[in-house]
Write a structure and sequence with these properties.
Distance between the termini: 107 Å
Helix content: 40-55%
Number of strands: 60
Strand order of the largest sheet: 1-55-54-53-52
Largest sheet: 5 strands, antiparallel
Strand content: 15-25%
């Protein structure tokens, strides 16, 4: 509340003057709605009335829009439908409408908490946010400039005084309004991605929350020094996966609970997730997305997309926290209400009544629900108030006889509406969504009640609509839909359905690129199908006016195909329904829009050019830009609609790039589908539709109106002339925006049968009906209030229901026919095979009969086998043909053979692959003992999980080791950084300069010497580094001692018993559930190894028995041969030969060979004629198994005895010898020896069998002990699991503290290192500052005249401009870049340190007189360097201070973390003690015999041994011996300790002596350096100095350049000398000419004087002369003067040239000066005295002088 109070105070302070200056908006001020709402667009100059279409009713609901349901009062709901806001009365179902005012639709709506106002946020360019008053529906307030294009969410605060709005792309502007005053209070960009919702906190008015795509943001109205601002914090998901947040709920303590996509709740504390809330057992709170919506009666209410509403305990949520490693918190819901099974709730609003439990819910599947959330026993069930289509409407059509409308959508429903009565009549649902719908014309169904509906699985259903009023089974419905027939012509969704104009053929198109034809009748029969180049978009039959009945097929890819109507009578039936012989014409659209634009631009430029040519004032033409290029879209633009204009010609409406035109096209007679694209031959430009294509077109019945559905959701009506198929009269239009402009594409539009209604359906789920008549005419013309429903057919009730196709995987018609044809072919092939076999048997019998007759004939007439044979070539040809066919069959069956072989191997591996799966029992021969193998079960789930964990841990260890290898590099010294940052200029020179041999030798020696010195230095550095590395740290301990201590701690342990309460479990002995599982896994592996090992011995024993049986059989056969030579009374009874039982050969049980298969086939053929095939089959298998066992036993024994018979059987020579010997004793001896051998071998086998049996018994005993141990381990595991969560949580906390401590330690170490580097930098800067001061002192020298003045200049602080670095604006802070200074702050003491120069002296910044300017400039440069160093020093000190404060902070944090770590260790130790105590309470079975029990206390054995400690005798003796050993070790350690102290004291003294010697040597070294070099130098640098070849080359190059320059200077001196001599000669010549010119001027002057005198003397004498003589004389004198003037000008020109160029000789083109004509004494002189005066230039007069 503090933030809100401050906010109101600041608001009052900021707006105090504006409120006083301007009056507040009056409460009773309203806007005129009639002047605001958007009206239809009408072409200027047309006579189309504005009310051409009048909205009649809205049948749809945009249920997938966010928060599209608000409640004004208990009976009035409002929601957005396209460009309309609908006010729906729940009780009367009446609708009232408000149109949008911005022209782009409506973005969001919200009701004021007082229920007296509601806000409508619109879409469009600079959309309006309008607040309406309720219930008057007056326009109360209009808020402007809140966003650029559209609003996405609006919301009022808890008291309704403020309004928050959120804009969508591109600005995403969050604005807080004082909506009553229409003022923007706060504004800020929310985020740069889609935002769904914004709201005020109901508990703190100064807090807001917004959420959207992958984010949630928390806002606060902060009071800053510039006023109120919005500060936002984006929520961080952390370890939780990012999710879109549709809804959230603010809690009283500032926390926020939000939903998620996977169904769990997220509890936000600050801007992070505190815990993830889930249901018990780790299950999600809801299946699917979840949104919290209310906090009432101590429970948080949530709803989800699973249709359930649940209540959760608020206190549990508020105090929830994560447990252990898991970030989830489990809890159970208090209450639950399941609205429905196929319900998806998206928003919910509460009733306006106080303490009401009634809520209204928006269902995204197309419904509005009324819910009672009281959660009582008397709570009524959820009530569905309204039901609508969900999602885009895919099909719409009207009845051709009544005011009925049918629609279908992907929500799997087909609905029928009475748009006259404004009601929904019936609804039927199916297994798949509907994609196309067509109402059959009266020519097909006279009652007008047949609907053809296509679905997305390719099924077409014929639905019959009827009135069930007269039926017995009527349920009171106004209409019903009954399935008449269902068939599946396609394998993909049906996109178009069309009847032929006569109603005889039905065509269906699909996205599987096929069109199927059916013959219409009582039952629709398939005719066939054709394939088209693309997915079918439009099907249109030619009208009746065309001569030939054809079908126009429009594909979405831009292909158009035309086929004639197929005739089922003339078509030939084939094996397929594909109509390959059906003729067709095709057209492939080619884009011409870019060419049209190009031609328009050319025409515009030509007109402009002609206009400019007429304009006389414009003489220049600007350079023209390039024309638009020709562009062909790839992929091609999609086709939206098409319809016939004339036979062979059609109109197309394209989308995408080619929108904005209607293209007139025609088919080419020689066109093929695979050829190039075709261009339209004509087009019509659609006004204002460059990016708004026509999606659907329909005409009125009289074709006077063409109605178009636009991509933007608008309706366009074009008046046309009757029968204007070329659309030449398509000029004026009437346009009204009705569906949503963004996603409400108008794909379905049609007129009623009487052209008085227009029906539209868009992709936004809205369905509108319009009246083409004014309101008055409509009321007068429609006296009926309901549409007529088709009546019930006769005997409809008695008809059986048609069989539906519910399986989406059912065969299509074509697939079923292909399957039947394949089955027929298989049956035909079997029949042929049977006939062939029968004929072969007959031929074989006949041949056998002939052979028998041939044998009965006498020998001389009997035919030999060779003669009976046919020609050998026939046999060879037959064999070749057979081999070829066999090879073909093998090639064909190779894949199946390999497949069967692999399958057989897998089965054998599965059942008989390992001996572990077979139970083997080996029987003894004489005794009744037997041993069996152990059954080794599959690995347990625990074992598999343990292996997975071990693999993961190994991977984690590898990753951690890799991360350890990649450590951060240490911090660099700033000085090194400065040196690295300074660019070194590299001078590239040519290597043409060759050095002398002596110079090269000197350089090489210097380089070798420097190299040797560098190697010595490096070696010395390595030795020092090694020494420093071996040097132990100050607090370092001996590694051997540390290792011994660790070993002692691990081995000594806690001497207290485990039963002691204070017993501390060592870390390496602490047990956890994972380690216990690992122990159980190891035990299980050990048991499996022992069992497997003994199983191998038993299998080996079985193999030895089989070998023994083979030997016994061979010996028995030998004994029979021997006894055959003896008389019968000497025969001894041979022992009974043992047999192999089936239990001893389990690996041979399932094997099958060809002989067995042949035997099975024979038995099967013998019993094939029996009636009870199944029972006979079972008996046959049993009989076959018995035979196979007998045969296998005999075969195994015989095969094993073959080799023994070959080895042991007596040879022929022995038999002859025995036959020849007649002594019975030998045969008796052989008989006895054979019998003895048989008995001994049997006895030996029984002995081995007995030994194996003992091993089995011993292993059984061990396995029992193992089972007991496993039971104990399992009990311990159960106990450990109980405390595992808490222990893991404590261990995680401890690990977290350890990690944090390590991080702090590393940060502290880095901070200290950086601080040390900063101190070094400060010292270096200070050193450089002192060096600058020294340089200033050195620059002054001995002259102390201007020292004081220059010192003032040097020390003066000047104003230095420094532009501030730009700082990027952070998100949400638009004012961060406004407050900045262009320059740094001026120093406070500038004026104090300014030096006022005395009078007569220069200013401070001016160089004084008599001062060297270079010195003054040098001082200014030094001052700049000093100021730079001071600024850098100040910055470095600031950074050092920051680092010191950071170090202090880190030290404090480290202490806190160490305390927390110690507390966590204590808690963990406590838990381990409790765990150990619980484990001590478990009973462990230890089998002991009485002689093993001894009591180590004098006296009798007590009866109660519960307090006794069980120890092994060896362990007890070892403990007693260990006591003596520890005493000896203790004395030894004391002696070692005393020696170590003595050595330590000696080492300390030696270190002091060494330090003193080092200091003395350093002092001597410095003195020697100062004596020799005058300063301290770096000896390493001095030693590594070597000759520089580049410098030597430059020196050599300089010498050569100096010699060349000297030679060149000498040559130029000679040239200058020659030029100077020539100049002197020319100057003399010019001087002579000037002197002669001067004399001529003097003569001229004298002549003029004489002339003047004579003129005065004889003036009187001339008066008597005649005028003719006078004129002649004047002319002569004038001519003379003219010639003299020419001479003067020539002389002047020559003088000027000589003065400029140093004198020159006249060229041949110039005339010499003419000689002066001697003057005669004239009688009369009238010439002016000034006529011949020369005019010399300034340069000429100077030359004369």
């Amino acid at each position: 509340m503090g933030i809100y109070v401050n906010y109101m105070i600041c608001l009052g302070e900021e707006h105090q003057h504006s409120v006083m200056a301007t009056e507040e908006k009056q409460l009773d001020m309203y806007y005129e709605y009639e002047e605001l709402y958007s009206r239809p667009y009408i072409t200027l100059g047309s006579d189309i009335p504005e009310n051409l279409l009048h909205l009649n009713h809205s049948f749809g609901y945009d249920c997938q829009r966010r928060e599209n349901l608000q409640l004004l009062d208990d009976t009035t709901l409002i929601y957005v439908a396209g460009h309309l806001l609908i006010l729906l009365d729940v009780s009367t179902k009446q609708q009232r409408y408000l149109r949008s005012c911005s022209g782009g639709g409506i973005g969001a709506i919200r009701v004021n908490p007082s229920r007296e106002y509601f806000a409508v946020a619109e879409k469009g360019v600079k959309p309006l946010l309008i607040v309406y008053e309720y219930p008057s529906i007056k326009t109360y307030r209009i808020l402007r400039d809140g966003t650029d294009l559209a609003y996405s969410s609006v919301n009022f605060n808890i008291d309704g005084s403020l309004l928050a709005s959120l804009g969508s792309a591109p600005d995403y502007m969050l604005t807080v309004w004082n909506w009553r005053q229409e003022e923007v209070m706060l504004r800020c960009k929310a985020i740069s991605q889609e935002v769904y919702k914004v709201s005020f906190s109901p508990y703190n008015p100064g807090l807001l929350t917004s959420s959207g795509s992958g984010h949630i943001k928390f806002w606060k109205m902060a009071d800053t020094f510039t006023g109120l601002k919005l500060e936002g914090l984006v929520g961080h998901f952390g370890k939780t996966a990012a999710t879109d947040i549709e809804g959230y709920m603010e809690l009283p303590d500032g926390k926020v609970v939000s939903g998620s996509n996977w169904g769990n709740l997220l509890l936000w504390d600050g801007n992070g997730i505190k815990v993830e809330l889930c249901s018990k057992g780790g299950q999600c709170c809801h299946a699917g997305s979840v949104q919290p919506f209310s906090l009432e009666d101590g429970q948080l209410m949530t709803f989800g997309s699973d249709g359930a509403i649940r209540g959760w305990d608020f206190e549990t949520i508020d105090s929830a926290d994560s447990i252990g490693n898991s970030s989830k918190f489990e809890m159970k819901p208090i209450n639950e209400l399941v609205v429905g099974h196929h319900v998806c709730l998206s928003s919910i609003v509460k009733s306006s009544q106080h303490d009401s439990t009634i809520w209204f819910a928006q269902d995204s599947t197309g419904a509005i629900w009324k819910l009672d959330l009281s959660f009582k026993y008397t709570t009524p069930d959820p009530e569905c108030l309204f039901s609508f289509h969900s999602g885009p409407i895919k099909g719409l059509d009207v009845s051709k006889q009544s005011h009925l409308m049918a629609t279908t959508a992907l929500d799997r429903s087909v609905r029928v509406f009475d748009f006259l009565a404004k009601t929904e009549l019936t609804c039927s649902r199916f297994s798949q969504g509907g994609t196309a719908l067509h109402w059959a014309p009266p020519s097909v169904n006279q009652t007008g009640g047949l609907l053809v509906t296509g679905f997305e699985d390719g099924v077409v259903r014929l639905l019959e609509l009827f009135d069930p009023a007269g039926m017995h089974s009527s349920r009171g419905d106004e209409a019903q839909l009954r399935l008449r027939q269902a068939f599946k012509p396609h394998n993909a969704s049906v996109t178009a359905v069309a009847y032929e104009c006569n109603g005889r053929i039905l065509a269906t198109g699909s996205s599987d690129c096929t069109v199927f034809f059916f013959a219409v009748g009582e039952k629709y029969e398939p005719i066939g199908f054709i394939s088209v180049p693309g997915s079918v978009k439009v099907l249109e039959w030619s009208p009746r006016s065309h001569n030939v009945n054809r079908l126009l097929i429009g594909c979405q890819s831009g292909h158009i195909v035309e086929v004639p109507c197929p005739d089922s009578k003339t078509l030939k039936l084939t094996k397929s329904y594909e109509l390959l012989e059906l003729p067709r014409r095709s057209f492939c659209f080619k884009s011409i829009k870019s060419r049209i634009k190009r031609e328009e631009e050319q025409a515009r430029r030509q007109a402009l050019k002609e206009k400019l040519q007429k304009n006389e004032n414009r003489t220049t033409v600007e350079k023209e830009e390039d024309l638009p290029s020709i562009y062909i879209p790839n992929p091609p633009s999609p086709l939206h609609w098409g319809f016939y204009s004339q036979p062979g010609q059609f109109w197309l409406s394209m989308g995408g790039f080619d929108s904005g035109f209607l293209y007139h096209c025609k088919f080419s007679e020689k066109k093929d589908e695979d050829s190039d694209q075709d261009e339209p031959f004509d087009f019509i430009k659609v006004h204002n539709a460059n990016d708004d294509s026509i999606c659907s077109v329909t005409f009125s019945a009289n074709r006077k109106l063409m109605l178009c559905g636009m991509h933007s959701g608008a309706i366009r009506v074009y008046p046309l002339d009757p029968d204007d198929y070329s659309l030449t009269s398509m000029r004026a239009c009437w346009e009204l925006c009705i569906h949503d402009s963004n996603y409400g594409h108008l794909r379905n539009i049609c007129c009623s049968h009487d052209d008085r209604f227009v029906l539209t359906a868009g992709d936004d789920g809205n369905i509108f009906s319009f009246s083409l008549l004014p309101q008055e005419e409509r009321q007068n013309n429609f006296q009926r209030k309901r549409a007529e429903v088709p009546s019930t057919r006769v005997d409809l009730e008695n008809e059986a229901l048609a069989q539906d196709i519910d399986d989406p995987a059912a065969y299509s018609i074509e697939t079923a026919k292909q399957k039947l044809e394949q089955d027929r072919q298989c049956r035909e092939a079997e029949r042929k095979k049977t006939d062939k076999r029968k004929r072969l048997r007959e031929i074989r019998e006949r041949f056998k009969k002939l052979l028998k007759e041939n044998q009965d004939l006498p020998g001389h007439v009997r035919l030999t086998p060779t003669e009976l044979q046919l020609d050998q070539r026939f046999e060879e040809l037959a064999e070749i043909e057979k081999a070829v066919k066999l090879r073909e069959v093998r090639d064909q069956m190779s894949w199946e053979e390999e497949y069967s072989h692999v399958a057989l191997i897998k089965l054998q591996t599965w059942f008989n692959g390992s001996s572990e799966s077979d139970r083997l029992t080996v029987f003894a021969i004489h005794t009744g003992h037997n041993v069996s193998t152990y059954h080794i079960p599959a690995l347990s789930s625990m074992h598999v999980q343990q292996q997975c964990r071990s693999a993961e841990s190994h991977g984690n260890e590898t990753a951690q080791s890799e991360r350890r290898k990649s450590k951060d590099q240490p911090v660099k010294d700033s000085s090194e950084t400065d040196e690295e940052d300074v660019p070194h200029s590299l001078v590239t020179r040519s290597s043409r300069i060759k050095l002398a041999d002596r110079q090269i030798e000197r350089l090489q020696k210097a380089a070798e010497k420097a190299k040797q010195a560098q190697a010595k230095i490096e070696k010395r550095k390595q030795e020092w580094d090694q020494l420093y590395a071996e040097k132990p740290k100050k607090n370092c301990e001996d590694p051997q001692d540390v290792k011994a201590i660790i070993e002692a701690k691990e081995n000594i342990g806690d001497l207290k018993l485990k039963t002691d309460e204070n017993f501390t479990v060592p870390k390496h002995l602490r047990m956890s559930a994972d380690r216990k599982k690992s122990e159980m896994t190891d035990l299980e592996n050990n048991i499996r190894e022992k069992q497997t090992e003994l199983n191998r011995e038993i299998w080996a024993l079985r193999d030895s028995k089989l070998c023994l049986l083979s030997k016994l059989r061979a010996t028995a056969q030998q004994l029979e041969r021997v006894q055959s030579l003896l008389p019968p009374h000497l025969h001894r009874c041979p022992p009974h030969l043992p047999t192999i039982r089936p239990e001893e050969i389990p690996d041979k049980r399932q094997r099958c060979n060809p002989a067995t298969l042949d035997r099975y086939r024979v038995l099967r053929e013998q019993r094939f004629q029996c009636t009870d095939l199944e029972n006979q089959e079972v008996g046959l298998l049993k009989e076959l198994e018995k035979e196979v066992e007998e045969v296998e036993e005999i075969g195994i024994l015989s095969s094993l005895a073959i080799e023994e018979e070959q080895e042991k059987e007596p040879t022929g020579e022995q038999e002859e010898h025995l036959c020849e010997a007649n002594k019975e004793s030998k045969f008796l001896h052989i008989q006895d020896s054979l019998l003895e051998k048989m008995e001994s071998s049997v006895h030996q086998f029984d002995k081995e069998h007995l030994m194996c049996l003992k091993k089995v018994q011993m292993l059984d005993w061990k396995l029992k002990l193992g089972d007991l141990h496993q039971l104990t381990l399992y009990q311990e595991l159960l106990l450990l699991k109980e405390v595992d969560k808490s222990e893991k949580a404590l261990q995680e906390k401890l690990n977290m503290h350890l990690k944090e401590e390590n991080n702090l330690m590393s940060k502290l170490e880095e901070c200290r290192e950086e601080l040390e580097f900063k101190h070094r930098d400060i010292a270096k800067v200070q050193e450089r500052d002192r060096a600058v001061s020294k340089a200033f002192r050195a620059s002054l020298g001995d002259d102390k005249k201007f020292e004081e003045y220059l010192l003032k200049v040097f020390k003066k602080k000047i104003k230095r401009a420094k532009q501030k670095e730009p700082v990027g604006n952070t998100e949400g802070d638009h004012d961060s870049g406004e407050d900045f200074d262009d320059y740094e702050n001026w120093d406070d003491d500038d004026d104090e340190e300014d030096w006022d120069a005395p009078e007569g002296e220069a200013a401070v910044e001016e160089c004084p007189q008599d001062c060297d300017p270079k010195l003054f400039e040098h001082v200014l440069q030094l001052r700049e360097r000093r100021l730079d160093l001071e600024e850098r020093l100040a910055e470095e000190k600031k950074r050092a201070d920051v680092l010191e404060r950071e170090c202090d902070t880190l030290i404090k944090k480290l202490k806190l973390v160490q305390n927390s770590r110690k507390a966590a260790e204590e808690n963990l130790e406590k838990v381990n003690r409790e765990k150990q105590q619980k484990m001590n309470q478990l009973d462990v079975v230890v089998p002991l015999r009485l002689h093993q029990i001894e009591f180590d206390i004098n006296g009798p054995l007590p009866l109660d041994l519960s307090r006794a400690l069980v120890l092994n005798r060896k362990e007890l003796q070892h403990l007693q011996e260990r006591v003596v050993q520890l005493e000896v070790e203790k004395s030894q350690q004391r002696e070692v300790y005393s020696q170590a102290r003595q050595q330590y004291a000696r080492l300390v003294q030696e270190r002091k002596d060494m330090n003193a010697e080092i200091q003395m040597l350093e002092k001597q070294c410095n003195q020697l350096m100062m004596r020799r070099f005058g300063r301290e130098v770096d000896l390493e640098v001095l030693q590594t100095l070597s000759g520089n070849r580049s410098v030597e080359e430059l020196k050599q190059e300089k010498l050569l350049q100096e010699a060349a320059s000297a030679e060149e200077i000498k040559q130029w001196d000679m040239k200058v000398e020659k030029a100077r001599d020539a100049l002197m000669t020319m100057t003399r010549s010019n001087t002579e000419r000037l002197l002669r010119l001067n004399r001529l001027f003097e003569q001229k002057k004298e002549l003029e004087q004489k002339l003047d005198a004579r003129q005065k003397e004889i003036g009187k004498q001339l008066q008597d002369c005649s005028r003719r003589t006078e004129r002649n004389e004047v002319w002569r004198l004038q001519e003379l003067v003219r010639k003299q003037s020419q001479q003067l000008e020539s002389l002047s020109t020559g003088v000027n040239l000589l003065s400029h160029k140093g004198g020159r000789v006249l060229s041949s083109g110039q005339n010499l000066l003419p000689p002066l004509v001697p003057l005669s004494k004239p009688t009369v002189q009238t010439h002016s005295s000034n006529a011949g005066r020369p005019h010399l230039s300034r340069r000429g007069r100077k030359a004369c002088n």
